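Hi everyone,

Forwarding the result from last night's run.
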Amino acid sequence: MTSTGGPVAVVTGATGGMGRVIALALASRGMHVVTVARDPGRTHSLRREIEKSSGSLEVIAGDLSHRAGVTAAVDAIRAGHDAVGVLINNAGAHYAERRLSLDAIELHIAVDYLAGYGLTALLAPELRRGRARVVNVASDTLRDTRQIKVRARPRPVTLDPQHLTDLARLNGAQGFVPFEAYARAKLLTVTAGYALARAFDGAVTINAVHPGIVATGIIDDLVPALLRPFGSLIRRGMLTPEQGAAATLRLATDTDLGALTGRYFVRETEAITPPVSYRDDVQAMLRATTDRFFGVTAV
């Protein structure tokens, strides 16, 4: 095992935007930051900045969009560390058209849900030893899929429980809407997070947070076509990555929140998610199917 001198913090999506800010902040607190990157070359400037302040960064080359990539990343983390103190599942993506992963799973499901779940469940022994805090970066699109929010009531994303027995049925081709596909993957993350929080029974805390509308690359993809001509103006009204990262860092490091688990926040305010996310049968089906996908027998 690698000796790092400080708690290990695994941060996905750390090469830019909010993830970069989170990685820098955790390193400044004396944590050894581990990140997974498809292109390790993109982490060079992050490494320089972290090392400039006497922090440490470990980069694992890998692709979290498919099962083999997730399990390989877990093996690499486990080979170097026997305990993980913080896991920030920050990596996310939005795709303008329906695409499949190497496992024939729709890519929003693969990247925005399965990657984080796999890291959490497969690293369970290391998270338990580290008395870890897990923070899933979500999106409030799960509570309202309207892209232009005028007059009508919020429209939560739909989820058909019958599709939960087969991951390949989620975000199917018929009636596919990219924005809703993204929101559905985030809903799965929160729903499974509630179940995992109970399973860890306080030994590991798991919370989810919508960081606000942050001016990052993914937001450019989510802006409706009608509003894209006003993109620069819209970005001016958004949060900076530093402002967006604050809510995630609060859940990961605030000493007053050490026992808090199984919650969803919109920035710093606790919020209620769609009713389907609290159903015990839905959580059980989702966990069973996802555990089977990753070969997880217990957390």
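The chain has a mean pLDDT of 92.

Cheers,
N.
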